[in-house]
Amino acid sequence: MDVQQTIAKPATLEGRGLFGGHPATLTFRPAPTNHGVVFVRTDMGKAEIPALVQYVVKRARRTALKCGEASIDTCEHCLSAVAALQIDNLIIEVTGPEVPALDGSAKPFFDALTDAGIEASSEPRQRLIVTEPVMVRHEDTMVAAMPSEEPGLHLVYELDYGNNGPIGRQLRVFDCHNGNYAHDIAPSRTFVLEQEANVLRERGLGKHLSPDDVLVIGDKGPLGTNKFRFDDEPVRHKMLDLIGDLYLLGAPIQGRIVAYKSGHALNHMLVRKLIKQHQSQVRRRLSLHRNVLDIRRIARILPHRYPMLLVDRIVEIDGDRRAIGIKNVTMNEPFFQGHYPGTPIMPGVLVVEAMAQLSGVLIGQKLEHTGKLAVLLSLDRVKLRRPVTPGDQIVMEAEAVRVRSRIAHMRCRAYVAEELAAEAEVKFMLVDDDQE
């Protein structure tokens, strides 16, 4: 069985950020099953930033994540090493706004994680299997995902700066399942062309670096004392970045990725499209509406009753990690009498309430939460994408981000006809039912 993994003991690295130059200490720590990979800003009251594409924010030439007020920049090299070692659950503590650059490659991270030891659990690993081609383009750049019957991730990357560019055309193929990441990919360093480096310095970025510290490529090759570690080191590093960016999916991918001059922004777009495709496939699979829990069993779990019981059936439950439920919206709903008589629209707060109720069903799957009541504590990242009207069927997904004995954090989405209607992150306080 393909099972989840973490590390056996902590490992620490120190260095300065690549762009800002701020000193930073990074510590890898083991995490429990179903925790995922999460950055923790220890200098900001242990603020957590999940390593998921939902938290990506726009930054030039790097991958950055932000949750609330906390952010972390230049995550891709670290995440590439995590992905290569197939580590599913990990806490990455950082004392500043940027991951240490070290030598500009993934090798220091890979070596530190390897030395910490890999520890397997008994919990199965979730994978995303590419079943249909997906492609994103921007001008002359492209990255695509295609189905593959072979296990693991297979990459084809072509880098091309043109006939007059300082880097010739480079093409490389890498099999993440059978290839030697530690030797062939991890040592490849981030690079910048000489003219690009000058522009960055004018913007106040990377001023602490010299061509001896980072791989700067001029018309005749690397500047300073640097030399290429591989003849095609640039394309290898682009593959390194791509592996790290793809891990923002939150699960390993089985498929073939073909890229032409793609960068971080395009990689993130592909991840979002893959997630959307997967969610669409799940909803199509559930079109038969197989009942896992009908309304009578839901009423035994939730304290809500008409007219406030807003989940009609549960069609899928994956342990205590994820649930999918249905709400059929009819003209007979009492709220349509006043919202609005001429143009009936389901109140957005009730769509969010329906997602919260589905979360309550999911929380109740754990034996230790039997007899507990999930009381709404906070709502974050709430977005209402489209109106819900009579005749619509809402397909809701609730995913556990973190569940403890007294607090639960859930991520929810609601769809109508495969179109995202609403999303929110919901936190609950778990109290004894007899307190209410």
UniProtKB/TrEMBL annotation:
Matches recorded under Gene3D superfamilies: Hotdog Thioesterase, lpxc deacetylase, domain 1, lpxc deacetylase, domain 2
GO MF assignments: UDP-3-O-acyl-N-acetylglucosamine deacetylase activity
Keywords: Cytoplasm, Hydrolase, Lipid A biosynthesis, Lipid biosynthesis, Lipid metabolism, Lyase, Metal-binding, Zinc
This protein's record includes keyword Hydrolase: yes
Pathway: Glycolipid biosynthesis; lipid IV(A) biosynthesis; lipid IV(A) from (3R)-3-hydroxytetradecanoyl-[acyl-carrier-protein] and UDP-N-acetyl-alpha-D-glucosamine: step 2/6
Subcellular location: Cytoplasm
Keyword Oxidoreductase: no
Enzyme Commission designation: 4.2.1.59, 3.5.1.108
Reaction(s) this enzyme catalyzes, per UniProt: a UDP-3-O-[(3R)-3-hydroxyacyl]-N-acetyl-alpha-D-glucosamine + H2O = a UDP-3-O-[(3R)-3-hydroxyacyl]-alpha-D-glucosamine + acetate; a (3R)-hydroxyacyl-[ACP] = a (2E)-enoyl-[ACP] + H2O
UniProt xrefs under CDD domains: FabZ
Cofactor(s) listed in the protein's UniProt record: Zn(2+)
Predominant cellular place of this UniProt entry's protein: cytoplasm
UniProt-annotated binding residues for Zn(2+): 77, 237, 241
Catalytic residues in the record: 264, 339
Family per record: Belongs to the thioester dehydratase family. FabZ subfamily. Belongs to the LpxC family.
HAMAP family assigned: FabZ, LpxC
Task performed by this protein: Involved in unsaturated fatty acids biosynthesis. Catalyzes the dehydration of short chain beta-hydroxyacyl-ACPs and long chain saturated and unsaturated beta-hydroxyacyl-ACPs. Catalyzes the hydrolysis of UDP-3-O-myristoyl-N-acetylglucosamine to form UDP-3-O-myristoylglucosamine and acetate, the committed step in lipid A biosynthesis.
Record's protein name: Multifunctional fusion protein
